[in-house]
Amino acid sequence: MKKIVLALIALSLSGSAHAAVTTIYVHGFHFSIQKTETAKTCQGQTTCTSYWGQQDNSSPVVHTGYDGRFNPTVAGAERGSTRLLENLNKYCRRDRGQSCRIVNHSMGGLVSGFVLANYNRNNIYNVLYVTALVSAEGGSELANIGNPVLQTLNVITLGLSNFFLNFPDAVAVLKTSAARGSYDHNLTNGTPFYHLAGNTPEWYINWIFPGSHDTVLAMHSTCSYRNVESFTRCGGQ
After folding, report:
1. Which of 3, 5, 2, 91 is nearest to 43 (CA)?
2. How far is CA 99 from the centre of its chain?
3. 10 Å Cβ neighbour count for 181?
4. Alpha carbons 62 and 112: distance in angstroms, whole number
5. What is the rounded CA–CA span in Å between residue 237 and residue 232?
6. Is 25 a residue whose pLDDT tops 80?
7. Residue 41 confidence (pLDDT)
């Protein structure tokens, strides 16, 4: 009987500890002008349908809503680093017994890496781990070519009405040299990063990327490698 009671207490404590962990979502670059509304409607909210669509809210979740048209590493009211810091200060302070995990997508990976490398050197924030989904931490060879290419992709994916959408600020920071030089990618201050890369058979765009890619990001970038390599999976060859 004593063993059963102890087991139930341990299970209860385990469940309480799990419930205390908040998942912070960080979205990515915007192709659509409608999605710029995430900066106004998603910050601090439990849903962000304008970017993520439907999602599983079975555990505590909070969104980081920022204007993905602009460089997220520059301070500003609606910039990515500012908005992520707001959420970390609210939900992830070690001195308050809080803990969180970060799930990011695309340019959200650059935001997460930049913030943790530069603003968590004293371990103020208790970030258990980061899950990076097709992260743009290493930038994109597509951005190296420039904004006209992204305009063309807008037309292909969203229709002719989107041809005149311009994102020069975001494109500039997503160039591989800019993304890789924006912060020390080896500095995570104890937070492990787990990367999930994409792969596509779209042959017509292979000439832009070294190795496998998802039409926007090469695998060596999205798996957070420092050097340009022809990788076909995360974790090396």
Report:
1. 91
2. 18
3. 11
4. 14
5. 7
6. yes
7. 85
